[in-house]
Amino acid sequence: MPAFANLVSDSTLVQETIDLLRVSGGRANASQIVDVVFKVSHIDEELAGLLVSDLIKDDRRFKIIDGNTIELQSYDSESRLLKELDFVVVDIEATGAKMPPNRIIELGAYRIRGGRIVDDFVTLVNPEISIPRFVMALTGISNEMVKEAPLFAEVAPKWLEFVADAVRIAHNAPFDTNFINHEISRVYPGHRMINPHLCTVTLSRRAVPGLANYRLDTVSDHFSIPIIHRHRAGSDALATAEVFIRILERLEEHGVRDLAAARIFHAPDSELASVDASNNETPAGSAPQLLPLVPGL
Questions:
Q1: What is the DSSP track for 243-287?
Q2: Domain boundaries 10-74, corresponding CATH code
Q3: Is residue 42 flagged as an active site residue?
Q4: Catalytic residue among 191, 197, 231, 266
Q5: Residue 234 pairs with which residues in a beta bridge?
Q6: From CA 72, how far away is CA 17, in angstroms rounded?
Q7: Each residue of 89-105: pLDDT tens digit?
Q8: I need a surface site. Which of 42, 120, 139, 163 has the fewest CB within 10 A?
Q9: Could you tell me the residue ranges of all domains in the chain?
Q10: Fold for domain 82-271?
């Protein structure tokens, strides 16, 4: 499997290893990890080192010291200034909301750097299943259009390279993030993307309070941003990118200057203690974020 810096293991054993290292000051010996994670005691140190090395190989979150000590690596993206970060704003269209069995039929993304759009990634995807009529009517994407499109397996390496170490942005980010990671796991079993992400639905609620709702149409209209082809991934991603650029300006006005501060701003005060690293929780006091029949709000 090709090594991508933003592709990591989705193994529960790896997550348990991360949890152990976090409560152990960021470092532990292989024997301790095998004892706690693998539930195997009194194992030879060399064998323990081999077991743990195999578990965490090619995972940039770990560093192996002298073959037996495992150190959890810290990355400075959380403390970096927002103006120094790259963001990739993404939108997908799919055959339906639930995966499996549904698949992506279009992927659109725009890279933001220094408050400007500098690159794009837009492609149809052959889902290898039939597109329902209501999805064709909504998106304008037909079975004929995706017939000769690349499979997601062909798109995945280029997608991972395009995103690289950028922060991912989406409108209803948990939906797009989970769907893309599902597709990634089909190509690279047991793996997912590790890029941090923020949701423009949640950010808009905090940055632009008082709107009737926070659908993409409504927020875009508030900022006078046109959506040329609604429910097409490229067009929706472009509108979301323009919305996010406006939000970045609002964040600066609120004194939010780095990713860590943006995460705090991203979550209501009542949830700050429990917000997880992926910011997937529904804001307290608001109506549950219902998934649409197809991606995009």
A1: HHHHHHHHHHHTT--BHHHHHHHHS-GGGTTT--TT--SPPTTS-
A2: 1.10.10
A3: no
A4: 231
A5: none
A6: 9
A7: 999 999 999 888 999 99
A8: 42
A9: 10-74, 82-271
A10: Nucleotidyltransferase; domain 5 (3.30.420)
